[in-house]
Amino acid sequence: MDSFQNILIIKLKHLGDVLTTTPLIEAAADLWPQARIGYLVNPGAEPLVRYDPRVAEVLAFPRGQGLWAQVKLIRHLRRSRYDLVLETSGGDRGAFYAFATGARVRVGYQPKSFKHQYRKIELTHVVTTDPATRHTITWHLDLIRALGVDPGDRPMRLFWPDDAPAKVKEHLARGG
User: Fold this and answer.
1) Cα angle vertex 61, ends 60, 63, to 5°?
2) Chain-wide mean pLDDT for the chain?
3) Which positions ≥6 away from 93 have C-beta within 8 Å?
């Protein structure tokens, strides 16, 4: 099994989609405990992974940013020296960012609807499992299985800041 020092998970989708990738965080942290884990999401999804103690950095990058913003993101991704990228979005943008990291191992999906073979250039390992026949969490964990490693079954986990319970109580008290 390869040893990875810097891992990036990419999910450029919606809140629920990001939540279903949290088992990847746990699997990566357990399988490569020395690794630093980063996460790239769409804006608004950061809180779902920001408070996970295993995630060292959360990057949120909105669609439609200008060329200079794209260049700055790519520079940051390259400077971070990721050696494993798990691209869970299945789209062009996520695969491009995975490729742009320069990571030696980049794992992602080949959606059935994509006839293009360019993903085999952007990604070093292409997973072709059909999400319609498997649970979403299992499908995401297939990215690790593509590396010849069994991540086992993993639950979704959500972390929140320490002051969240007090804020919830205060909010509920205000509402009666």
Assistant:
1) 140
2) 90
3) 12, 63
Residue 25's nearest CA partner among 8, 42, 46, 4 is 8
Spatial distance between the Cα atoms of 107 and 16, rounded to a whole number of angstroms? 21
Token duo for residue 4:
């990875």
Q: Annotate the chain with three-state secondary structure.
A: CCCCCEEEEEECCCHHHHHCCHHHHHHHHHHCCCCEEEEEECCCCCHHHHCCCCEEEEEECCCCCCHHHHHHHHHHHHHCCCCEEEECCCCHHHHHHHHHHCCCEEEEECCCCCCCCCHHHHCCEEECCCHHHCCHHHHHHHHHHCCCCCCCCCCCCCCCCCCHHHHHHHHHHHHC
pTM of the model: 0.91
**For residue range 85-112, what is the model confidence (pLDDT) as tens digits?**
999 988 888 999 999 999 999 999 886 6
User: Is 113's pLDDT higher than 80?
Assistant: no
| pLDDT cut 70: percent of the chain above it | 93
